[in-house]
Amino acid sequence: MLLDTLNVSSTFSNFIGSIQTCILNQGFLVTIPNSIRKEVNLKPSQEVLLYIKSGNIVIQEKRLESTENMTLVSSKGSIYIPKEIRTTLNIQKRDTFQIFYNKETKTIILKPDNSITK
User: How far is CA 97 from CA 18, 22, 65, 75, 113, in A?
Assistant: First the structure.
């Protein structure tokens, strides 16, 4: 797989970008490709935290007790994007995201891909 270093900002300078993308489907789910789920050790039924940083959706494994924007990873690697995040970022069904990840912090970033038309 072709990999490039992400240069979105200094905050995300340790992330690896993949040539893979994902699409927000009709059920407001994005499916993270299996190859990336393996890299960050993301497993079915695992609770993850979702939040916004620099206009991107950040997905991290749950580390502390919190109910804020928590969701479960489905058996097929799908993650529900909560309405609060969709509204804040003006995300619509069929929007496409570039996928970036950091193996050490087990973090995934979904960057809205404005270059891909719906």
Answer: 11, 5, 28, 21, 5
Measure the CA–CA gap between 99 and 113, rounded to whole angstroms: 10
Structure tokens given for 23? 């699409």
Could you tell me whether strands 96-102 and 16-23 are parallel, antiparallel, or unpaired per DSSP bridges? Answer: antiparallel
Number of Cβ within a 10 Å radius of residue 87: 9
Strand partners, 22: 97
* DSSP 8-state symbol, 12: G
Per-residue pLDDT tens over the stretch 57-83: 999 988 777 667 889 999 999 999 999
> How far apart are alpha carbons 6 and 32 in whole angstroms?
18
- Other C-beta atoms closer than 10 Å to the C-beta of 80 total 17
Are 21 and 39 in contact, with CB atoms under 8 Å apart? no
Q: What are phi and psi of 47, to 5 degrees?
A: -80, 135
- What pLDDT score was predicted for residue 5? 35
